[in-house]
Specification:
Blueprint lengths: L2 H25 L4 H13 L13 H24 L4 H8 L2 H12 L6 H18 L11 H21 L4 H8 L4 H12 L2 H9 L2 H28 L2 H4 L5 H14 L5 H18 L18
Helix pairs in contact: 1-4, 1-11, 1-13, 2-3, 2-9, 2-11, 3-7, 3-8, 3-9, 4-13, 5-7, 6-14
Length: 298
């Protein structure tokens, strides 16, 4: 891997990690579900007019859009609105290592290997450590939403795998077509019309920054760069870099929100990220292309 590409990859992990702080900036000031709907609306337009629709069945694009938009980011942004810190949100997303093991076995008939089982166990222990953190960064009200987001991350990987697409960027762009409307419907179902009435007055500079940062550099640019790199280099080279995303997420939260880092928090990071690292490890000859789609933290 060239020094240039290493630098680009590190910058991308930093971008994805700092994205959680950008989310918090907007989620503290407006309805989190509408914030997410706006993210995907801007990421979708005008990009969709310049990207050819991938040759997959419509149901896969629909399933991807709802899972990616509502299941992952709708729930994660909502959890941040309820108090989950930007530093812990990225880590809790990696609980997908557990649901990936279950869904992979159940839906894709993947073999449950020793390293995947050990990785899932370490992650679960890390989750229990998270429950012991008392600084308010992992409130019980928001924790279930983060776990739904983590599960949805694994489900999204299954959808991509089942679709059989080889056009990852186009699949993502066209899948996002089905994200904004379900998010708007979800916001109305839970909160009625009031968030829509309040929204125009809440769209200040910080909220616009949050929306546009999530939409363009994080989603469109980030995903495009990641897929180019995963085509150029093997999974065994790229996968370890993704472990840095929650670390940068915590660093961003420390810088922008003065999040404290306790011994328990460090232990939780070591256990969850260690579990993910163990789960991802495999001999080079067993690496498969679809796995790269399971580790995109955007």
């Amino acid at each position: 891997m060239t020094f240039k590409d290493i630098g680009i990859t590190l910058a991308l992990m930093c971008l994805w990690g700092f994205n959680f702080s950008a989310i918090k900036l907007g989620a503290e000031q407006t309805n989190p579900i509408l914030l997410t709907a706006l993210r995907f609306s801007f990421a979708l337009f005008p990009a969709i007019f310049f990207v050819r629709r991938p040759s997959v069945k419509l149901r896969y694009l629909f399933a991807y859009g709802v899972t990616f938009g509502v299941g992952i980011w709708g729930m994660m942004v909502w959890s941040i609105n309820l108090g989950v810190s930007a530093g812990m949100a990225g880590l809790l997303m990696d609980m997908s290592v557990v649901s990936s093991l279950v869904l992979g076995y159940w839906l894709l008939k993947e073999k449950i290997t020793l390293n995947k089982t050990l990785g899932a166990v370490l992650a679960v222990i890390g989750l229990f450590v998270c429950l012991m953190i008392e600084d308010g960064s992992v409130p019980l009200a928001g924790l279930p939403l983060t776990l739904i987001a983590a599960f949805s991350w694994s489900l999204m990987a299954v959808i991509v795998k089942k679709s059989g697409t080889r056009q990852a960027f186009a699949f993502s762009v066209w899948g996002m077509l089905f994200a904004p409307l379900p998010l708007v419907m979800l916001a109305f179902s839970f909160h009625g019309s009031q968030p829509f009435i309040d929204l125009p007055g809440q769209l200040n500079g910080e909220v616009w920054f949050s929306i546009l940062f999530q939409a363009y550099p994080t989603t469109l640019l980030g995903y495009w760069v990641w897929n180019r790199l995963t085509i150029k280099y093997p999974l065994s080279t790229m996968a370890p870099f993704t472990l840095l995303t929650p670390v940068f997420g915590l660093l961003g939260s420390m810088i922008f929100y003065e999040e404290t880092v306790s011994t328990l928090k460090i232990l939780a990071y070591v256990l969850v990220l260690g579990g993910l690292a163990v789960s991802l490890w495999q001999p080079r000859r067993l690496s498969t292309p679809h796995q790269s789609k399971q580790i995109n933290h955007i």
